[in-house]
Amino acid sequence: MNYFNHGLLLGGTASGLLLLLPAAAVQLLPLIVREVSLVIVVVLAVLCEVRIVPFRLPQNARQVPSSIMVRADGSGALQFGFEMGTGLRTFVPTQLPYLLVALSLLIVPWWAAPMMGTCFGFGRTLMVRSAVSSGDASQWDARFASHRRTIVALCWIAALGALTVIVTVLPDSTLFAPLPFR
Questions:
Q1: How confident is the model at residue 28 (pLDDT cuts 50, 70, 90)?
Q2: Which of 1, 9, 110, 163 could bond 121 through an S-S bridge, CB–CB 3.0 to 4.6 Å?
Q3: pTM above 0.85, yes or no
Q4: Considering Cα of 67, then 71, then 74, then 79, what sign does the dihedral take?
């Protein structure tokens, strides 16, 4: 389990590292352009999430092959975790990871992209640990599926709240400049 969790964190961090150069380039654009782009991504993601817009943002909708896991030295679990941690070779059940990518590219300082990727990997680690610690992963999956809408709604509320805080505390934010607490 530790190899797998380390793989999740390493995969997320690798994704964040891959965002460094694009984030540095995109952040040369004026802040208002980046903020408007972020608003567009958020609105599109929300509309996709509630199925008003019949469109899924890109994902590689297939499982990492379980044959990788059988390696006795732990490298299979590490690779499996890495591939899941990148988010590039697995299902993406919600649009929220795209907000993390958009935030990494458009708003937070470019050098924070690896940390944002690590946070993504850590989030995946929490899900796996939760399922394993429940004692019966299939029962956990069933409970998750039955409460999925509520869980996703709460995650969206938390994400949008955090996004609002991040954007409003930017010293040169143009979207929220007229707010009285700035």
A1: very high
A2: 9
A3: no
A4: negative
